[in-house]
Design a protein that fits this description.
- Helix content is about 60%, strand content about 10%.
- The protein has 5 helices and 3 strands; from the N terminus they run H-H-H-E-H-H-E-E.
- Strands 1-3-2 form a 3-stranded antiparallel beta sheet.
């Protein structure tokens, strides 16, 4: 939940209670604000669930992680059916975690850059997000 979203919700709650007198104003403000903030939490949860669904390949199976080095693991992920569509850093990180390999993003990111520079991967710009696919040979 970012600060700007919270600020907007607070403003909406304040406008909703304008003209009310205490203690009704305080009680109503708390109820409205809690409702607005719970909507944000619900939408964040829905986004996370959607991301989990996107990790599945066409058969509903999670990608299998193979290889000894991180470079080989990433390459095998993106060479699978799951990797045919562009995948961002968070999706790759989650897929590795599902395979039992827990790397911080700060470790995965330089490997993605290295593989891109070597021509193994292609980097795609999708808005502010960078996605990766295996380069065609």
């Amino acid at each position: 939940m970012d600060a700007e979203t919270i600020k907007k919700k607070i403003e909406i709650a304040q406008k909703a209670v304008e003209g009310l007198e205490e203690p009704m104003k305080t009680n109503t403000y708390e109820i409205v604000l809690n409702k607005l903030l719970s909507e944000i939490k619900t939408s964040e949860l829905e986004t996370e669930i959607e991301q989990e669904k996107n990790l599945n390949d066409k058969d509903g199976q999670f990608p299998i992680v193979e290889g000894k080095s991180l470079k080989n693991k990433i390459t095998s992920l993106l060479d699978s059916e799951w990797g045919k569509s562009p995948r961002n850093l968070n999706e790759i990180k989650k897929a590795l975690e599902l395979g039992g390999y827990h790397y911080p993003s700060t470790t995965i990111s330089p490997v993605l850059i290295y593989l891109t520079r070597k021509g193994v991967l292609r980097r795609l710009h999708e808005g502010k997000t960078l996605s990766y696919v295996l380069a065609k040979r």
